[in-house]
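Each record in this resource describes a single protein on a pair of labelled lines. An example record follows, reproduced without changes.
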Amino acid sequence: MGSLTEEANLVEKVCQLYEKISKLETLKPSKDADALFTELVRTCIPPCFINIRTLPGNIQETRSKLIRLCGEAEGHLEAHFSTLLASFPNPLHHLHVFPYYNNYLKLGRLEFDILSRHYSTEKGVVPKRVAFVGSGPLPLTSIVLASFHLKDTYFHNYDIDHSANSLAASLIAPDPDLSKRMFFHSTDIMEITDELKEYDVVFLAALVGMDISDKVKVIQHLANYMAPGAILMLRSAHGARAFLYPVVEPEDLQGFKVLSIFHPLDDVINSVVIARKYPSPTEINNHNHRRRQLGTGSAMLPSSCKYSDLQAFFKNPLTNMNIVEDLAMDE
């Protein structure tokens, strides 16, 4: 019963933080915004077996709104520090000023290790061309991978926001190596078709498609146009961290074989999903996604989201708790 009480308290606190964040005058970096988002992250990081998909519809709606606010705030944060870094003669020498740079170093190492296990059975074979979809104004994943792990690989970064790409490109331009291996495309990935076949690996950022139905559309598009056998790497979330980022389930990856899902337990927030495009076209069925839309099949609780209401919802652990194990479906 103790764990259920803790989960109810956690959900209530997240709802309270959402109310405060939603009333901020701006989501750009500021003392108030920084404090609230820091508290939110600290609340959601500890391991928790809560199953987000079983929560009541009104809390699902709050979660969806919160993810969008987090995404908007993250964009402002990256743009702020990208602009700051661009003021240095060699921006890439000062990446440590970004407060979450160490997290990107850890995540980059994690993703490289997972990719290395599945990309090829031949020792020393690495992807020649990588696409990163949703790279943003501070493309740290591409920078970390290109600088430390994939030193001969070409990176093509896609973002629909031209201003974000301009900021990102200004960081790379002074570097004699990355400026030759990193490219930026200001376009909607849904408009890219045959070009996707040129990439050995495609990374999909966590905030591309902040609603799962939108993310599934992007995944379906990638399944239609990526080369057979190419690797797709995505970021997901697990437990309470799903209040910060969208969750990608195996059934969302129609057209791909899921190879592994890894849920970090440290301060690296995102889960890592790796999948391989099937050799032949696979019909994509979105029937399973309809039940995941907000409010579908979920009980409704009062919008106040008080502990007394949540306690009743959490009383049946068999109904409301689902421990998701890591997958390791190696070929």
Q: What stands out?
A: The beta strands are 129-133, 154-159, 182-186, 201-204, 231-236, 256-262, 271-277, 327-328. The first strand starts at residue 129 and ends at 133. The domain at 1-321 is CATH 3.40.50.150 (Rossmann fold).
